[in-house]
Known about the structure:
single chain, alpha/beta, Rossmann fold, 6-stranded mixed β-sheet, 3-stranded antiparallel β-sheet, 40% helix, globular
Amino acid sequence: xxxxxxxxxxxxxxxxxxxxxxxxxxxxxxxxxxxxxxxxxxxxxxxxxxxxxxxxxxxxxxxxxxxxxxxxxxxxxxxxxxxxxxxxxxxxxxxxxxxxxxxxxxxxxxxxxxxxxxxxxxxxxxxxxxxxxxxxxxxxxxxxxxxxxxxxxxxxxxxxxxxxxxxxxxxxxxxxxxxxxxxxxxxxxxxxxxxxxxxxxxxxxxxxxxxxxxxxxxxxxxxxxxxxxxxxxxxxxxxxxxxxxxxxxxxxxxxxxxxxxxxxxxxxxxxxxxxxxxxxxxxxxxxxxxxxxxxxxxxxxxxxxxxxxxxxxxxxxxxxxxxxxxxxxxxxxxxxxxxxxxxxxxxxxxxxxxxxxxxxxxxxxxxxxxxxxxxxxxxxxxxxxxxxxxxxxxxxxxxxxxxxxxxxxxxxxxxxxxxxxxxxxxxxxxxxxxxxxxxxxx
Length: 442
């Protein structure tokens, strides 16, 4: 069982988590929700032991696994191991296999006096492999890779050659291969297509262990959880609701509607009683006791009026065009890109006109990001020409956020783009809910 007791967290003067407590029982599946900045990812990191809280205690089950939403940046996913070793490492199977192979070689070359000792160690190593499921491990890993639609990824492929989306999928496959008592998942569907998301929902639905998941995928929250934990960004406390996300919306929506009706009824009654009080005042001292009674009733109704919850702030995004470009914004002519003998795309031609909205779709690893990077000149083409139209200003949001300095504060990172206009920078950050002291966080 996961037990989270009285967790407190602040970033400087900004309170994030205030006395947060909850449990996730064996087999229970909980969705952690809240607006951006409410502290969901911070709470998950505290539970996983990757971040210290200012106070409180976390009690974890025997085994647990954590998937970060920034997993593609982590060193274990950017290293030089093979897909097989990366997955097997989650349960120590790679080390157990290495020990077994080393003992096999030693046993073949051992002197007669050493054979009995080495044989005992060899048998122990063999038992370890059996306990860890070595003989079914390749099949299990390939099943997970296929389920998450990691097309073209073999167990012998180097992890470092995978795309950002493929690395995130692989990290999820590694965690599911581990099959811990508790899964901690932070936005696991960010890089999953519809089919892979559907497969994951079914997998989590049948998963025997406990689950704590952060996700903006409403279908997943409806399909794979039986409890909602909401971090309230105003009180910084945690609210618990039984059922799926749809149940949560129904309960909170009905409760809010009841509060609104009750408040409206009380306000109408207060307005009526005030008119009555004014009439009684006109009778002078003959109706004083009645007026006092009415005023007490008004005071009681005023104090009992329900306080409606504050509405969550919403991100406001627009892309104002200060100067119109030429009619043809971008023209791509016979673009070809290869990595060694692997051809990513060949003879691609298209153009983008002013005002058009285009989407590039395809499986993970198909070359979508590579195409974007070649259009921007970040990655070199083998053949073909990209032409930008007159007065075109480019903006690029990278999949893996390359170019961001993760040690920098939000404000300093934004100021690097507009160093002479701090007022405008603060305004833009505020529209993305980076207001107040939040601009000083890393």
